[in-house]
Amino acid sequence: MAPPVTHVSGTVTGNVEVRFTDSGVAVCRFRLTQTPTQWDAAARQWRDGAPIRYVCTAWRDLARNATESLTDGVNVLVTGRITEIRDNAVYLSVDDLGISLRQRIAYTETSLPSPAAAAPISPTASVASVAAAQPAGAGTGGRSAGQAGGPPAWWEQRRATGWHRPAARTPADVGP
Length: 176
Known about the structure:
This protein is α+β, with helices and mostly antiparallel strands.
């Protein structure tokens, strides 16, 4: 019988180590620390509990992706199986993992902004061109694209056409 699956959220501590087996299969190992919180009714506040240390091992594509994506201090969500408990640490065989979005924004290869997003532009020209390209308040909670707090035009275009397909590039997206 397979060990039960567990879900852990915590902070990566240290660097990810990657190695390859003789047959070329990637395997990575990283350490994770979870600090549980508990409600203290007497003090009426949350208190940090004792940190729980994990040693996580991932294989194949997951190992390669984890090695490229994880750094010290990143909060992650891990799904895996406990393989053993020793040396004051829980050892996990990782089935899946993801970056926690609680404290940061994560971009995927397909959701990265275009290179034109980093090009210097004049504020008045960009707001006028974006506002003209997007109907006011379309799907943005009353804020139109280009207004403070509103999404960029490419966001609304991708949202309207579906996130799973690459957005069509126009000369306006590329810039001068």
